[in-house]
Amino acid sequence: MRKSLMRMTLRQLRVFRAVCDNHSYSRAAEEMALTQPAVSLQIRQLEELLGQPLFEYTGKKLYLTDAAEALKRTSEDIFGRLESLDMQLSTLQGSLQGQLKLAVESSAKYFVPHLFALFRDRHPEVSLQLVVVNHAQAVHRLNANRDDLLLISQVPADMDLEFLPFLDNAIVAVAPPDHPLSQRESLELQDLTAWPLLIREQGSGTRRAAEQYCNQRRAHFAQTLELGSLEAQREAVLAGLGLALLPRHAVLRELQSGALIELPVDELPLMRSWCLVHPRGKYLSPVAQTFFAFARTERQRINALERRFSGADQL
């Protein structure tokens, strides 16, 4: 190993990460409570140690060089291991401490806070950093190793992942209570195709699962309206713009209040499993390891929570 690399300091790496995150020397200086010349000096010293430039400007935009990308990955590993060390030291003192960095597909965001609350009953000193994404963004974050764990509904088959299916995600057809189909006691998926279908944006896992299922069942909707979130879909159904295939969790309150109804479609609900995933071989922090083990061993408690939260027994 180059001796010059041993002279890098954690402070230099922190400044470097701030520049990477902000794509700006001035904004990094503001974030670090430093002057811009001080930030420039730290980066220049790093470049001298590496023997390569870290950033380059094209027009007014700052871009990372290949050397910077490599250093960024290394710095993430270094700081991740330091954070893990802090957690391990806390564990040796008798308590699990630290932060769980969790990314979840939007279909799971209604349930995950309740799941984490169940976990924190046992580990009250653990905090949560939660990021909500669609399926395509989740895959991108997996490739970039941005999170401790991800919660997704369709595990990419072309990636080397460790995954744990641990909870069902029921996708149902919903409509306003005054919809013409609301009086039917039994429906086929094909019966829904006479009305507009409200769908999510490209990249959504729920949209992908629903489209694949409808194609398998030869249920082709002549008219669709694309909306950018579960909330927008839900509001559009409430407004009478069409029908939607949504996770039951996403419309629980509306179903319980009677603002929306679940249509009795024989081929539904469409069941998909939520899975906790991480790249195979990834080093997991003690908090992430404990949460993964919790999801594996506490199926009974989690299923009981899901039934209570989803209201499945009452619907």
- The shape, in one word, is elongated
Radius of gyration: 24 Å
Percent of residues in beta strands?
Answer: 15-25%
Let me know the average pLDDT: 85
Topology as H/E string?
HHHEEHEHEHEEEHEHEHEEHH
Tell me the total number of β-strands.
Answer: 11
Fraction in helix:
40-55%
The rounded distance between the terminal residues' Cα atoms is: 63 Å
Number of helices in the DSSP assignment: 11
Spans where pLDDT lies below 50 across 5 or more residues: none
Described by strand count, sense and barrel closure, the largest sheet is: 9 strands, mixed
Which secondary-structure class do the elements indicate? Answer: alpha/beta
Q: Which short descriptors sum up this protein?
A:
315 residues, alpha/beta, nine-stranded mixed β-sheet, two-stranded antiparallel sheet, elongated
Quick synopsis:
With 315 residues, the protein is α/β, with parallel strands linked by helices. The protein is built from eleven helices and eleven strands.
Q: Which secondary structure elements does this structure contain, and how are they paired or packed?
A:
Blueprint: H1 10-22, H2 25-32, H3 36-50, E1 55-58, E2 61-64, H4 66-92, E3 98-105, H5 112-122, E4 126-133, H6 135-144, E5 149-152, E6 161-175, E7 197-199, H7 205-216, E8 224-226, H8 230-238, E9 243-247, H9 252-257, E10 261-262, E11 270-279, H10 286-297, H11 299-310
